[in-house]
Structures are given as C-alpha cells and as structure tokens.
Amino acid sequence: MKLSMTPCARLMLSIPALALAADLHAATVRKVDFNHDVQPLLSDNCFACHGPDTTKIKGGLRLDLRDAALKPAKSGKVAIVPGKPAESELVRRLTTTDEDDRMPPSESHKILTAAQKELLRRWIAEGAEYKGHWAYTPPVKPAIPDGVAAIDHLVRQRVAELGLKPAPEADRRTLARRLHFDLVGLPPKPEEVAGFERDTAPDAYAKRVETLLASPHHGERMAIGWLDVVRFADTIGYHSDTPRNIWPYRDYVIRAFNDGMPFDRFTREQVAGDLMPEPTQDQKVASAFNRLLLTTEEGGAQAKDYEARYLTDRVRAVGAIWLGQTIGCAQCHDHKFDPITQKDFYAMGAIFADVKETIIGAREAGMLVPDADQARELERLRQVADPLKEKFDGPHPDLEGAFAEWQARQLSMLATDEAWTRLAPAKAASSGGATLKIRDDRSVLASGKNPDTDVYTVGFTNGISGVVALRMEVLPDDSLPVKGPGRAPNGNFVLTEVVGRVERDGTEVRKVGFISARATREQEIFVAENPYGRWTAASAIDGDAKGSSAGWAILPDVGRPQQLRLALAEPLTLGAGESFVVELQQAHGNHGHNIGRFRVSAASDAGAFDAPVVVPPAGAIADLLRIPAADRKPEQAVKLMAHFKDQAPELADLRSRLAAATQAKSDFEAKLPRCLVTERNDQPRTVRILPRGNFLIETGEKVSPALPAFLVKNPGRPATRLDLADWLVSRENPLTARVVMNRLWRQFFGVGLSKVMDDFGAQGEPPPNAPLLDWLACEFMDSGWDVRHMVRLIVSSETYRQASTAPRDLLARDPDNRVLARQGRWRIEAELVRDTALSVAGLLSPAVGGPSAKPYQPDGYWENLNFPVRDYDASKAGDQYRRGLYTWWQRSYTHPSMLAFDAPTREECAAERNRSNIPQQALVLLNDPSYVEAARTFAVRILRESRGDAATRIGWAWRQVLSRAPRAEEVAVLEALLGKHLTEFREDRGSAEAYRKVGVERPSADIDAAELAAWTDIARALLNLHETITRS
Amino acid sequence: MDLSSELRQFHRQQQTRRVFLGRASQGIGALALASLIRPSSLLAAPARATGMVDPLHFAPKAKRVIWLTMAGGPSHLETWDPKPKLAAMHGQPMPGSFTAGKQIAQLQGQKLTCYGPQHQFQRFGKSGVEICGMFPKIGSVADEICWVRSMTSEAINHDPAHMFMNTGSQIAGRPSMGAWITYGLGSEAESLPGFVVLTSLGRGGQNQPIAARQWAPGFLPSRFQGVHLRSKGDPVLYLGTPAGVTREQQGDVVKAVNALNLQHDAIVDDPEIATRIAQYELAFQMQASVPELVDLSKEPANVLELYGCKPGDGSFASNCLLARRLAERGVRFMQLYHKDWDHHGGVKQGIEFKAEEIDRACMALITDLKQRDMLKDTLIVWAGEFGRTPMSQGGDGRDHHNAGFTVWMCGGGIKPGTVYGGTDELGYAAVDNPIDVHDLHATMLRLLGIEHTRLSVKFQGLDARLTGIAGKVIKDILA
Prior knowledge:
The structure holds two protein chains of two kinds. By secondary structure, chain A is α+β, with helices and mostly antiparallel strands. Among the domains of chain A are: 7-132, no CATH class; 166-214 and 743-752 and 762-824, no CATH class; 261-374 and 672-733, no CATH class; 420-610, Jelly Rolls, CATH 2.60.120; 927-1031, no CATH class. Chain A is built from 37 helices and 16 strands. Chain A is globular. Chain B is an alpha/beta fold. Chain B has a domain at 64-232 and 314-477: Alkaline Phosphatase, subunit A (3-Layer(aba) Sandwich), CATH 3.40.720.10. Chain B is 33% helix and 16% strand. In chain B, the strands form five sheets. An eight-stranded mixed beta sheet of chain B has the order 6-5-7-1-8-11-4-12, sandwiched between helices. The chains are: A alpha+beta, B alpha/beta. Chains A and B meet through helix 1, helix 29, strand 15, helix 31 and helix 32 of A and helix 2, helix 6, helix 8, helix 9 and strand 15 of B.
C-alpha cells in the first residue's frame, strides 16, 4: 500500500485528529486533548492570522498562547471563556451563518467540519486547557510492567483500545526476507531461508538478527536513509552541476553504522568534527557534512545572494535532520505556526558562518583521505622527502664562495641585458581566435582558445630607431600548462617562422628581413621528422625553406624563460605614421604548440646580438642583486640564496634527489582519494537579518551565532558548531531523539509514528501513539544513543514480527497501518531494487565503500548539462555491479532508473521517499540494460546450476528470487512462456545472438543462444514480479 | 495483447478515474480515505478526466498549455520591446538613476553604457504592434498575440531563474508548473504522460545547462513529473525493448508478469498489485504509442513545409509540430525548451540565428492550431527566464536582466492583438503595470479554470501553492 504523499494522504494532514475513523470514535468518549485534537486545528486554520508571527496578528487576537486567547481582543470580545462555550466568541465565529463574521474567512479556503467545530466547543467546555506543544516537551519514559517488551506493550495497549487484534506472527520465510531487506538490503539466499526455517531453537530468530547486524552490508543499508536526509550527492547542484570530492563521507557513514557508533558522537563529528581536539582523519571526513549543500559556479552569480542561499540551506538541513522543524519558514518572517523567530533563523545560520568556502566557484579538491596502507606508504615517502628538503633548505656555508661568484656573473649579465629596450606593443592579435592580452610589463599573454595553428601579429609604433637586433623572450606564467612558456600540454611551442614588415595605415610599405638567429636553447629531442635534425632558432627565419612545420622549440627546458635573438638585415627606423609589425607564425599543427607568453625587445647596438645568449635574472631577483650584499635585509638575502640554490651546480645531486622524492610523494598523493571537509575560518562571515529574505538589503540587524531561543536559554557567549552539536544530542533537547526514532520506525514499519516526518511543529501530526515514540526516544538516550540497540529492540519485537497481510475490514479501518495491528508491505527502495536483481544474478560486487560507480545510463541523458559538456562513462565490469547505494549521484540528472523508483535528487533534505507505482518502473525493469543483463546472467545460473526438466528448473529459479517454491499454476505460466520463446528463438538465431550481447558481461560460448534467450525472458519475468520488489 | 477481461475492466477504470502516470493510492484504503474527504469521489466516473480540482473553480478557457521556454534569457530589446530612446543614447553612460541598488549579474562593478537595439522594429497586423523586424512571420500572426512588456523576475542567474519561472520558488524541490497543472486537472492523454518536455539547441551554441529539476514533481506524487521526450535515442528513457526481443515477445513477458502478479494478489490481497498490473500494461502501450507519436514522417508535406522542419531533425520547429500532436492526444502541459538565448556577446547575430529558428515555427504552431480549431482552448506562452540589460556587455552583448522584459501569450482565453504593460524609456525596469512570475502563473491557472489560491498541497506545514503567497490574475489580458 502506498503510504505517503498521495493526494489523499496529504489532504489527511489537515485533519490529523480525524485520521482514523476509530480514533474519531475514541475522541468522543475521552477528554479532548489539546496536543492531539485541538492544536492541529488551531494551527492549520487560525495561526496564520492569530499565531506566533506577530507582524500578521489580526484583531489583536492570538490563539497560540492561552493567556492571550483568554483576554479581550481588539473588539472587546473574548475568544475563549473556559468552561463556557456559549460565551466564547471563537465558538460563535465558527458557527455563525453570517458570511462576514464567520471564521476561518472564506478567502482562506479553510473549512472546518461539524465534527471539528464540536471538538473545539467541547474543549472549551472542558476548560480550554492548553499544553505545551508535544514535541517541545521533553519525553517522559512511560512505565512498563515487568517482563513485558515495551514496544509490544505500548502497541498492544492501543490496538486493544481501538478494539483490534494483533496479526499473527509471519511465517519464517517472510520473516527472513523482511529481516534481510530491512537490515542488509539484500534478499536472502535460498539456503539461508531454508536453514532459518529448519532451526527450531528458541533463539533462531535472534541469531538471524545478530548475523545480519554483524554483516558489513548492514551499514550500507542504514546509510541510505541518512544520505537522503543530509542530501549527499557527488555534484554541486546548481547550474553546471560539476563533481566534487565527497565520497569518503559516505564511507564514514557506512562505517559509523557498521561500528555501532553512538548517535551523539555521530552528530558531533559531522557538525563539528574539525573543532574537536586534535581531530582524527575520520572526524574531519565526518565534517564534510557541512559541505553537502548546493553550490554554484555560475558566472555572474552574486556572492551576497549565494551567501544567503548557503546559510538558509544549512539551517533548513539542521532543522529537518535533527529537529524536525521547518525553520526555513523563518527566513523571511517569524514562523507562522511555530515559535521560531526570524532572528532564531539567522542566529542559527551564523553558527555556520565560520565554514571556510568559496561562495561562487569551484570547490577545492579537499583533504587527502588515505586508508591505513596508503597512510603508511605516504608516511614512508615523507620520510624520504622531508630530510632531503630539510637539508636543501638548511644553511650551506660551503657554498659561500660559489654564491659570491654567481652574484658577480649575474650582475654582469644584467649589464649586458641593459642594451635591450622592451618594446610596448600597440596591438596584438591572434588569427586562430586566442585571446592576447598586453600586460603592464609589455609581455603578451595568450589565453582562451588554443587552436592547432596560429599566427600572432604584434605591432609596435614607438621606440624603433636604428634597431639592428630583436629579442623575443618567451616567459613562463602560472596560467600556462606546466607554467609554459608554450601552450602545448607539455609547456612547449614551435615558432615556425618570424616575419617582419613596416606598415602604414595597415598596408605593408616594406619588409624587414632577418639574417641570423640564436637562442638560449634549441630542442634536440623528438627530431625524427625535423629536416634540420634539431628545433633551431635559424629555422624560424628560413622562409620555411624546408616546410612550415620546422621551427624553434625548447623541450625539455620548459617552465622558465628562454630567448630568441634575431639580427636585422638592415637597421630599422620608423618614419612618421609607420608601424613595425612582427608576425609569429606557429604552423606546427600539433596540439596547439603556440607561445603562451612573450615579450619583444630591440637593440641598436650590434654587440647586443652577439653577447652570450643567457637569460639574465628576472625582475625581483635582479633588484635584489643590485642591492649591495651588506645592505640586504635578512629575508632578501635568504630569497637570493634560495634562487641561487635552485640552479647551483654544486647542489645538482641534492636537488634532483629532492625533486624525485617530492615527485614520488605528489604522484602518490594524486592517486589518493580526497574529500571536502570543514575548515574553520578565523574571520567568520558577518550575518545580518535579511528583511523579507532579501540579500540586497544590508541594513538588517547583525546577529551573533546562537541556538534557537524558543528551545534553549543561550549562554552569554556566541554559540559554536560544537555547542550546536552538543545541544542537538543533549537530554535537554526534546526533539532529536524523537525525530531520529520516528525515521527509524518508518524504516521498519513503512510509516512513522508521527506520519509527518519533516515537521514536528504545530502543523505536523502529534503521534497517535505518543507514549511509544516517547519510550523509544528515552530508551535511545538512556542507551547512550545506541542506534543498533534500538534496531535490535524494534526487529525483535512481536509487533515487528507480525504478518503484513490483513483482513479487508482491518485494511478499511486502518489503511495506513497507524495502529500497527499488522506489519507493513511496500515496494523496496530504488537502491534495493537494483541490489536484488544483481544479487540474484550473482553479479553483485560484494565490496563495501569506495568511489561512486556509474551503472549503464541511456546515451544523451546528460545532453543538457554544460560547463563542461560531459560524457557518461559507464563503469567497467566489477564496478559496474556495485550496490545502488554507490551510484554516481548527479543532482540535476540523477540516474534515471534510480529516479523512477523514487530515489531523491538530494538537492534538499529528504526525510521520506515517495513510494510511487508508475509505468517508468516497468520500463526500467523490462528494458534497462542493467536489468536485462542481470536477467541474462541469472539465466546462465539457471542453466548451469539447476538440473532437471523445465518445471524443476523454474522451481529452482523461483526459489532464488522469492525464497519459496512456486505453486503449480505459477510454474504453468512460466513454462508456457519458456516453450513459446524457445521455439521462436530457435527459429531466429540472430535475435538470440543480439540478446546475449546486452551489457558488458559475455556468457560463455558453450551456452546455446536460443536457450539462453528463452531463459532470459523467464528470468526477466521473475525480476519484474511485484513480489520480487516488495518487502512484506 | 490479450489480457483477461478483469484486467481490461480495471484498466478502463484507471483511465476514466484519474490521471495517467500511476494510480498510487488505488485500493480500499485510499478509497475509504477519499470518501471520507470527498464523498463525490466515489460517485460514477465523471465525463472528463479530472484531477484534484473537481469541479473546476471557473469555466475553463484553456484546456492545455504549450509553454515555449526561451532558455538563456532573450533580449526583449531585440525582439518585442521597441526602445528608440535607447538607440538615441547608444554609447552614452547609463544614467545611475536606473540602476542604483538593483541586482546585476556579470556587469558587477563595471562601467555601464547604453547599448542601442541592434535590429529595426516595424509595425505588424491590424493591431499595429511594433516588434523587431527579424520576426516577420510571428508578425504575420501578431493579431493573435498578447505581448506583456512588463514582466519581472526575482532571480538573475539561469538556474534559480528557471526554477523561479517554473516553480514560483528559487529553492529546489518544489513542483514544476506542469506538474501542478496535471495534478490539478488530470490528463486526457490515454497512453502518454500528462506533462511532456522537449528540448532543442540553436546554432549559436550558448548551451546553458538545464536541470531535470525544472520539470520535477517536487512534493507532488511522482506520476506528475514531466517526461522528457528526447529527439535522439529512445524518445522516452528505457522505452526500447531489449535487442533481440520482438514486441510480441515483450508482450508475452508483460502478460506473464501480470498473470503471476494477479495470482499473487489472490493470496495476499494487496491493492498495490492491481496498480502494478495497470502500470505494466500502460508501459507496454507506451512502447508503441510514443514511437508513433514522435514519428513525423506521416505528417503531410504541406504541414512540414509550414513548420519548416524535417522529421527527426530535433529542431525547435519539429518540437512545435510534436507539441501540436501531443495537444491532439490530450496531453495537458507541453514545455519546449529552446536554448541559446544567452547573448552576453554578439547579440546582433545571436538574434538573427534565433529568429531563423523560431520565427516560422511559432507562426506555424499558432496557424496550425487555429486551422484545427484548437487555438481557442490552447494557451501558448513564450517566455525566457529573464531578459537582458539595456547596457552593453563587452561591446556587443547584453547581460542578464530581471527588472523588466517581455513575454507573450496567445490562444485559450487571451485577448488577442494587444500589448500590456511596459518598461521605462530605456527598457530597464517594468514601470507600466509591472507583473511578476506569480501573476503569470495565477493568470494561466485562471484560464485553465483554477483559482490559484485554491490549488494547494500541504508541505512542511504550509499550504504550498504554485503562486506562493502572492499572484494576481492579470484581468486586462483575458479575452
């Protein structure tokens, strides 16, 4: 049965007190209860104008506080006169026939039934007693008689109260399937069921429970619900929806459930793991919780806008995950129904203002997360690299002499360099569409498009007089691949030809020829196809005599400046209105071998061309060199020394050992997983109340971090995330334990004790069996927040072990199973649908944890993603068959077969999933290659592992999928299908061959294609059965 | 396929009783609940397909909506909003009085310069409405159209702005308008979804991403989600039968599954099983009906000529023709995304490309529907997620802009040949009868027969609505 979110079910929420016909009957005999009967009516129908939002109060009347409701309103009349309904204006206004006077007013579209009005009248007649809101009152553990299991006692009490009878215990096979789905999320193997059925020991059931609780798959099963509420996903969500490194957090969650981590610690580590004293790697990974929100990289997004979005996202999440409160409603105004002020909202948001993050832009790569082996290896590599680094960085008194000589040499080079004048480009253009930017230092930097071939045209109008030589420096830059100076992925370039001319008004007036060329470095590798046998400077002025692909290149000396010098055929002087144009042709044609950054200088002294071709020290170092040694400040001396050490031949060996060790370490690190974690910003962002939630208004009151004032008295100092976490799991907090137990209950019964999973406020539903929820909450806290203890208690109860089938009169009286006179039945979660098929097929990967996997996905499903455009590369065999839980979670295009079975996109906290029943589910199970391949692989198992005639084999297959033997009429249906399809596929071998090629798994060649095809259809039918995907 | 008579009977009940995709709350429990709340729901099946709004609040003027989403944010200044003053001020600084304290996207912190309209405007039709001359074919049906030149939005970046235009909220997780409308009205489509989405990409390649959440059902049941009809691969995800399996064989498998489910139901008496059986039958029908629907090759040559498309070309024009076919088959809400309107640079040429792609197609859609007498009850809305700045970006483009832009509507109940509202003399802010997204939604719902304040669902304690807590019907544009 569909248990949630149907239109009908949702409508029910407006009259929770009447949710159950039987309950209605009960309310007519017992005293009216404020929390259960009255508050939901007042909240939904009256609070919008007569409730906690003080800016919206009409007629001076508040009904959410008893004192206020008993006082005369603006009209002078009194809404509620306890014991005297006839004198109560509220009763008159509810029942009057005068349209103008009647409440709720017609424009609210709220209508109270006669029974609801009568309830309110009786409540006033009985004294109009108010009680604190149920969920804000700390739970009190009901007393349970000795020798009785509390859950069963409290459920049975209510079952009996309503005149119902509990269902009998389900049969062993059903219990086995139920336990397996609920505790590990996988169907049991036939032999496991058989063993359980045979085990007559009194503790047979308990043993099964313990076995499953100890399974590493238990943590996976438990993680699904938690990942939904914390909105765990692999991508950022907004706009480009790009990936982020986050999966180690999922492993943390799985491990926490597998290790039986207490829930209070689980909470603290996630909210504030980074603030704990000397946090462990696990605690830091846990703090990834604070990074799970949606973020953007969209150009043009405003930081203030998204700062506000991130704040509200986090507050909504904490509200929903732990408190079951719709705090998000207080973003723009005080809450309409609950006593949450707008200030509470922003004060809670301010608690997260210390989370270090880029507001607009890519997320950082995150912290390294090595496993134990990897951590050891990393440590070993550090042990190698660190001493070398220490030695290299340390003092080197033996090099003083060399250092002095080096300085003298550098200074002489600087003197030579002064013969060159840097020319200021008047323009720079790319023929291939690259963006050329002229920088203040007169260099030109290329960015944007990097075509395979390009011609840069640079024009100069000033400083050209008597020029006899040109120098082109190619310079490194951080924006270039491996710092450049080229734009090829290896930092190289090929300058195939330099052409000079003089132009007037854009027209060539004369050519400028070059007669010789020299360079700091000429590449001598990859020369096989080079006609010169080397990538020479001269080939850049050869008029492309040996083809246009030869030119000047510099590999392997990339990452630092290089020079090309050209001697002019004749001295060049520009006349008025003339400009000197240099074309840098880059026609090599391979991988964008274009220059990334360059600068042109001119010399009018012929000696400049002939001077040794070395690269003089650049800007900052040159400046340091010019300061006499005695006048240098210590840090300047250190910097110069460091520069010296980077190239001193005396240190070459140490340098190369250090470089190798550092490289080994960084290569290893590059292979390690990373995870976004929370790091604290010492300067938290300023948080102001945003009037009407509008981020453009920056005049709102500044708020400091604080816990919600309606629940807790704040200490004098601003609250930290650790304070928040401590409070979330403190005994004083009336909400967390109830909220968590309500979700846990839903996992095992299909519906929460309070049906509204995400709202424990006035608009939610007071749990019809309040003592049970309170008992569970108290027991949870008493046990030290022991989740596994609670799971064990629940699944061991007789209530849990009931049959899920029910007579029609019970179905009619209690369609949503709120009384628990039976178990629930529902279609299993999306992940489990997948796991079931893979498990039966024998394909399922048993691995626990690790990166997300990519199951087959229809081509083009991501076509509307961009920045960048993405291909979906389905995982290879092995990872292809991982559990559904590990599916790559792309928020804006969540895997379609997961979506079809109601997996949430995890853009927002999802405290409950739909359980829809739509045709897309049939299309997925029938046609998705994952399921077709699983069916075919299962068919191989049937053919290999079962013996006997068709009926016997069908029986074997049936037991694999459904843990029971088929009835004769069931066998008959499949036998008929098998017979027909066997005949057809034998006649059409081509189709049978095509069928065996779906997916990457290849059945062995000795299996007959027609037989396999026919059995694949049997397997497909079995995997499509309602019973197969139903937990009952 | 030959299903048992009970099944067929059950299926008929499904079709007449409620919306296409899924019938989740089938069964005794749900019926008991429904009868508790709305005794009428147990009465005989009504003549028309119904949703949650039954009876409708008003006599409907429109039965269905074709929403043309011009994704990326079309410039109103090169399409529907003539601004001679802006042309006169071209190259001059944008007066600070227009822009102070307003949201700005990529032009944050830059010098703001007026950028004149890049194409000429001319008058069209009897109504004499002045629109950009690049759209003469739309101009030729101008007398059918109502231009709303005073649209505004709260959002200024693509993703949140689409969310706002589609769901009335910038927070993910709210139902898209197509979901709201199929929830409210149900669908008359027998074996097609009630809410269908089509996408196309233009020549300029400004391919802003569009998330599937734009057609998500949010907190409404999954069956109200928009189904993306794709132009490549399976038109609906997983529609294709596995390689090597014939349609008849697929039918055999479905029949076996349904027969076994029925046998199982006899033992466990689970109302969800009947729904499951019906969904399998529907899925099997879709495997035939959808390919038939998307196959444009049977359309007469003159129709293909009218739209200017070739079968299977994936163009916006093809999608317009598909929208007509969907409309004929009773689909309630068709949303066509045409991308590539994000003209931060090269707006002049960009608009030329777009005009080639949409001018004739829009005219054809209006003309075709009119010829079939369907325009009168089909509401067409043409809207981007926002407009573009009167200020230049990078010398030849325009930035995102939400203070004033144009949408147009025609058909089902809209006053034809009219202009409503206007922006200031530079086309910056809506000053004459400004309206917002909620007003647009309220007006659409009104035309469909729904009072927007009464289409609500409880969500997180609130009576959540498409129009939030706002929305006014724009009465002046109703026929």
